[in-house]
Write a structure and sequence with these properties.
The complex is a heterotrimer of chains A (200), B (194) and C (226).
Chain A lengths: L6 H52 L5 E3 L8 E7 L4 E8 L4 E8 L5 E8 L15 H8 L24 H19 L16
Antiparallel strand pairs in A: 1-2, 2-3, 3-4, 4-5
Chain B lengths: L1 H14 L10 H7 L3 H30 L8 H23 L1 H7 L3 H4 L3 H12 L4 H29 L11 H15 L9
Chain C lengths: L2 H11 L10 H7 L3 H24 L9 H23 L1 H7 L10 H11 L4 H31 L1 E2 L20 E2 L13 H34 L1
Helix pairs in contact in C: 1-7, 3-4, 3-6, 3-7, 4-5, 4-6, 6-7, 7-8
The chains are: A alpha+beta (200), B mainly alpha (194), C mainly alpha (226).
Chain lengths: 200, 194, 226
């Protein structure tokens, strides 16, 4: 902005704010680094704990082996359970954002349970799908034993949607359907299919 | 690829409209929707900054913060980028396109604290959008903001002649009107590209 | 500075949400359960108080040209700290507030108080300003949550209280205490629509009360002068 003739003055005028800003940012970065270092272990272990607890909830087993499949935007991950079933992580779009869930599938390709890992659905409506409340449990229990395409009653299926949250209910149905389809494609010899890359 | 971009756009403009469904950017929404002309000026400025911020923050996050293991600095870095960007845009416009600068000049500084801008950048990161998706989300999010604020400005111009209880004067009646808008936008929920 | 007056300003007469009309986004977005409301309110209170103190401490060395940038860095720093701590110790809250925790950075309350108050006052006053404004914000959030939750889903204390055992839970799983069957609840109130409507009505209510008390005061003064 200023010509370089009054170098010392203009440099000084520009330098001081810059230096102060930089110093504040550096202090902030330093403090944040410390806090991040102190909390990262705990945050990671909470996430891992939550995943393994959810896995136990949908398909109890002694161990799970990550099949290392490629995330296609719908089927995100799959694990082979030690007792012959699978746990599949799927993501669908709900009414407010993405709904990520774990679906348990047993050796005879029937759903053994579903657990919502992450969602931002409306509290009191769509959020019920993932809650430990009576209504939430009842909603998720409907998926146990399902084998083919799962849909809400409005779409001609068997699942009673959560009142006022048809869209969230549909998302969970779609996630379970995708997981069942994926498991059905697993070969008898155990070779793992990669999920189709174009999953709508 | 195209389907996902269309679905992102549709989501940002209608289904998950930044204002009526995600509650982002309410302060400028209520602040400058009093007159149609100011609403339009603000909209243009927001679309512009949101698109640019999405692009720049994506680059910084992908090529700087993640490789260096500085993910915890995301919020700090993003807000600084937005603040600097707004400043640069202001300086550039003043020199290059003075007419546009006078049109949207006073709204530019306000954008730094517009939570829709920081919101779009954070949501890009949260949803793991790639570069193109981020830019499209930023642009269409801005368009959604513009749609909401322009629609609302036309309602507010009429509110001036409406007869309502005195206690509702000012922002209160605007919020009630916005509530009806939110109800109308709920009609879009669940709309999807198959 | 008179603490009593400062308290009344923060909570009622200059309430950040209902009177200054700032920080509206998060107020409407997350006020669906008491758990969210109290969590968000306390987070803002802590961040606001810390920022007020730090900015007041360094107010003499902040150069005018980059003052907003410095405020923003300080605020973003504290927000990130609170965000990380919540993720580590109250993960349920961090999950249910989601993107609205980092968005506290642009919550106009905090940058507004920095610009209007703490950059001009000493540390002690700034500290109390942060606490009182934070309390004012939390009170509005709690009011919004109680109204929306009770009328919208028929419960009180969702996420925080567990109706069956009656105990406070901190993992956000409590279903709340049921007041009436959700068959009769107006579900729309927990949707975005209800957020706008509830805040609009609350704002009108406070305006009504304030104008009534102002009228009464004026009438009294008139009596005295007569």
């Amino acid at each position: 902005m200023k010509s370089s003739i009054h170098l010392s003055d203009s440099v000084k005028a520009l330098l001081r704010p810059g230096v102060v800003l930089l110093a504040v940012a550096a202090v902030a970065a330093f403090v944040l680094g410390g806090v991040s270092l102190a909390t990262s272990g705990r945050i990671e272990s909470i996430a891992a704990e939550k995943l393994s607890a959810s896995m136990q909830a949908v398909l109890p087993a002694d161990g799970y082996e990550d099949l290392g499949i490629e995330d296609n935007g719908e089927v995100e991950a799959a694990y082979a359970a030690s007792n012959g079933g699978w746990v599949v992580q799927t993501t669908e779009s709900g009414s407010q954002g993405l709904v990520t869930m774990l679906v348990g599938v047993d050796g005879s390709y029937a759903c053994t349970g579903v657990s919502i890992l992450d969602s931002s659905e409306t509290a009191g409506l769509g959020a019920i799908a993932g809650q430990a409340s009576e209504k939430g449990e009842a909603f998720r229990a409907q998926f146990v034993g399902q084998t083919a395409v799962v849909a809400v009653t409005k779409d001609g299926g068997e699942i009673d949607a959560i009142t006022g949250a048809t869209i969230t209910s549909r998302a969970v149905c779609a996630g379970v359907t995708a997981a069942l389809e994926y498991c059905a494609a697993i070969e008898p010899d155990g070779s793992v299919p990669q999920p189709l890359s174009d999953a709508g | 690829m195209l389907a996902s971009l269309v679905s992102i756009s549709l989501g940002a403009i209608l289904v998950n409209n930044f204002i009526f469904s995600q509650f982002l950017g309410l302060c400028p929404f209520l602040g400058v929707s009093g007159k149609m002309s100011t609403a339009t000026g603000m909209s243009v400025a927001v679309i512009f900054v949101m698109t640019l911020a999405s692009a720049i923050c994506w680059v910084i996050n992908t090529y700087l913060l993640i490789p260096l293991g500085l993910k915890f600095m995301q919020t700090v870095a993003y807000i600084l980028v937005i603040a600097v960007l707004v400043q640069l845009v202001e300086m550039f416009l003043r020199k290059a396109i003075p007419s546009l600068y006078t049109a949207m000049g006073i709204f530019l500084p306000l954008i730094t604290t517009n939570c829709a801008v920081l919101g779009v950048v954070l949501l890009n990161t949260q949803n793991n959008y790639n570069f193109l998706e981020s830019v499209v989300y930023g642009f269409t999010g801005g368009v959604g903001f513009a749609l909401a604020i322009i629609l609302f400005a036309s309602i507010r111009e009429r509110l001036a002649f409406a007869d309502y209880p005195k206690a509702f004067e000012g922002f209160a009646i605007c919020l009630v009107a916005a509530a009806l808008f939110a109800l109308a936008f709920m009609g879009f929920s669940g709309m999807k590209i198959m | 500075m008179n603490r009593k007056q400062q308290f009344a300003e923060g909570t009622i007469t200059n309430n950040p949400v209902l009177v200054q009309q700032i920080g509206l986004c998060a107020t409407m977005a997350i006020s669906t359960t008491l758990f969210n409301g109290i969590g968000m309110g306390l987070s803002v209170l802590i961040i606001l108080t810390c920022c007020n103190v730090v900015i007041s401490l360094i107010r003499k060395i902040i150069p005018g040209q980059v003052r907003l940038a410095i405020f923003v860095v300080v605020i973003a720093g504290f927000v990130t700290i609170v965000d990380l701590l919540l993720q580590a110790f109250v993960p349920a809250l961090s999950e249910s507030l989601g993107v609205f925790i980092p968005l506290i950075v642009v919550n106009c309350i905090i940058i507004g108080r920095a610009e209007a108050f703490s950059s001009k006052h000493d540390v002690k006053d700034s500290f109390f300003d942060g606490v009182f404004q934070g309390v004012g914000y939390t009170l509005v959030l709690i009011a919004m949550c109680l109204i929306r939750e009770l009328l919208g889903s028929g419960t009180i204390g969702g996420g925080l209280l567990n109706g069956a055992s009656g105990f406070i839970t901190l993992d956000g799983t409590g279903a709340g205490i049921r007041i009436f069957s959700d068959t009769y609840a107006a579900g729309a109130l927990v949707l975005p629509f209800g957020g706008f409507l509830t805040l609009g009505v609350l704002m009108a209510l406070l305006q009504h009360i304030l104008s009534k008390s102002a009228a009464r005061k004026a009438a009294k003064e008139k009596e005295v002068s007569d």
